[in-house]
C-alpha cells in the first residue's frame, strides 16, 4: 500500500541478519603498508572480537590496524566514511571539507549529525588533512580512502589507529562491516546492510512485476566526457541489489563508459536516469539535446540526484536511489533507518 510520504521510516535493527560478502584479504604487517597492496578490491573482515582483552585486528588496503578496545571517537577523511560513522551511531569528532558538501555534513543525514556529530571539527580535505587539528581531537580511530589519504598513512597512524579502504564502488558495503567491527557494533552493521538489501529486493521485485522487467540506464552529464554508469559503479550495485536489468552494453564490471553525443543511442533503455554535475553538466547536456536521437529518448528520461547516484557511495545514497526508482515506477519507497532524512530532497534544498 502506498504511503503518503512515500519514504517510510523504521528503527535500525540491532540484531544480526544473515549477510554474505566476498571480501578478500591481503598480506600485511601491523602498522606498515604491505608491498604491492596499494590497490585492492575489498577490505577483509574477520569475526567479531570478544570483550576479553584481545585486540581488534582489521586488515585494510595499506596494512593491518589493531585496536586495544572498540573505538568511541572517529575522524573521517571523506563523505562516505563520515556517513557510515553516523549511521552506525559512532561519535564523529572530525571530518573533511569536500566537493559534495563543503564544510557541512549532508542534510540527508537528518538528525544523525546533531546526535552523533555535534561539535565535530573540520580537519582539512581528503587529500590534505590537517594533522594538528586531527591530533588535537585525540580520536580513537581515523578512517578514509586509500586513493586520497594513502600518502599520509604513516603520519596518520602516528596520531591514531588508521584504516584506509579501497574506494572501489563495488565494495562500498564493506566499510560498514569494517567500521562496525572497529566500533564493537558488527552485528548492527550487518543487520543494517541486510535490511537495505531486503528493501532493494522488494522494490526491485515490485518494479519488475509492474513494468515487465524494465531495463535501466544511468547517464551523467559533467564537465568532460559524458558517462554511462555500468554494473561496476555504485548505482550499478544498487540496481543489481534490486534485481533490475541493464542494457547489454552496461552489464560488465566496469565503473562507467564514456559516451559522445553521436553515441546517444547507446543509452537507450526503458528508463534512463539522468544526473547532472553542478560543474558543467548542463552545458554538456545541450550537445545531446541537439541530436536527432534525443527526442526519441527524452520521454523515457528521469531526472535524478547527482550526489546520491554518483558520489555518495553510502547507505544514505543507496536508499535515495531506491526511493527515486520507486517514484519513477510508482511503487512504495524504502523503509529507512530512524533519524535519516530523505536524501534527494534534502540535497536539492541545501544547494
From TrEMBL:
Protein's name according to its UniProt entry: ABC transporter substrate-binding protein
Start and end residues of each Fe/B12 periplasmic-binding domain: 73-333
Signal sequence bounds: 1-27
Main localization (coarse): other
Similarity comment: Belongs to the bacterial solute-binding protein 8 family.
The keyword Signal appears for this protein: yes
Subcellular location: Cell envelope
Species this protein is from: Corynebacterium antarcticum
Polar residues biased stretches: 35-49
Disordered, as annotated region: 30-50
Keywords: Signal, Transport
Pfam families in alphabetical order: Peripla_BP_2
Database matches in PANTHER family: IRON III DICITRATE-BINDING PERIPLASMIC PROTEIN, IRON(3+)-HYDROXAMATE-BINDING PROTEIN FHUD
Amino acid at each position: 500500500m502506498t504511503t503518503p510520504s512515500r519514504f517510510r521510516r523504521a528503527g535500525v535493527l540491532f540484531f544480526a541478519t544473515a549477510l554474505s560478502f566476498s571480501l578478500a584479504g591481503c598480506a600485511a604487517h601491523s602498522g606498515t603498508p604491505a608491498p604491492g597492496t596499494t590497490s585492492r578490491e575489498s577490505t577483509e573482515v574477520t569475526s567479531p572480537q570478544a570483550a576479553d582483552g584481545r585486540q581488534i585486528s582489521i586488515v585494510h588496503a595499506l596494512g593491518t590496524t589493531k585496536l586495544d578496545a572498540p573505538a568511541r571517537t572517529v575522524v573521517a577523511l571523506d563523505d562516505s566514511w563520515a556517513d557510515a560513522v553516523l549511521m552506525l551511531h559512532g561519535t564523529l569528532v572530525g571530518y573533511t571539507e569536500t566537493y559534495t558538501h563543503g564544510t557541512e555534513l549532508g542534510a540527508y543525514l537528518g538528525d544523525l549529525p546533531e546526535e552523533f556529530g555535534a561539535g565535530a571539527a573540520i580537519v582539512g580535505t581528503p587529500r590534505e588533512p590537517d594533522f594538528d587539528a586531527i591530533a588535537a581531537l585525540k580520536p580513537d580511530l581515523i578512517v578514509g580512502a586509500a586513493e586520497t589519504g594513502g600518502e599520509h598513512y604513516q603520519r596518520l597512524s602516528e596520531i591514531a589507529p588508521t584504516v584506509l579502504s579501497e574506494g572501489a564502488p563495488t565494495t562500498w558495503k564493506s566499510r560498514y562491516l569494517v567500521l562496525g567491527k572497529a566500533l564493537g557494533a558488527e552485528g548492527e552493521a550487518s543487520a543494517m546492510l541486510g535490511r537495505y538489501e531486503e528493501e532493494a529486493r522488494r522494490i526491485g521485485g515490485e518494479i519488475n512485476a509492474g513494468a515487465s522487467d524494465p531495463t535501466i540506464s544511468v547517464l551523467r552529464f559533467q564537465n568532460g566526457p559524458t558517462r554511462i554508469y555500468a554494473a561496476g559503479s555504485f548505482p550499478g550495485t544498487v540496481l543489481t541489489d534490486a534485481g533490475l536489468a541493464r542494457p547489454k552494453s552496461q552489464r560488465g564490471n566496469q565503473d562507467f563508459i564514456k559516451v559522445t553525443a553521436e553515441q546517444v543511442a547507446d543509452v537507450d533503455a526503458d528508463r534512463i536516469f539522468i544526473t547532472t554535475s553542478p560543474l558543467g553538466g548542463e552545458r554538456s547536456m545541450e550537445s545531446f539535446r541537439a541530436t536527432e536521437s534525443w527526442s526519441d529518448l527524452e520521454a523515457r528520461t528521469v531526472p535524478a540526484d547527482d550526489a546520491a547516484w554518483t558520489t555518495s557511495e553510502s547507505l544514505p545514497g543507496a536508499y535515495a536511489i531506491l526511493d527515486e526508482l520507486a517514484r519513477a515506477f510508482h511503487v512504495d519507497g524504502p523503509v529507512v533507518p530512524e533519524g535519516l532524512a530523505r536524501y534527494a530532497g534534502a540535497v536539492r534544498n541545501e544547494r
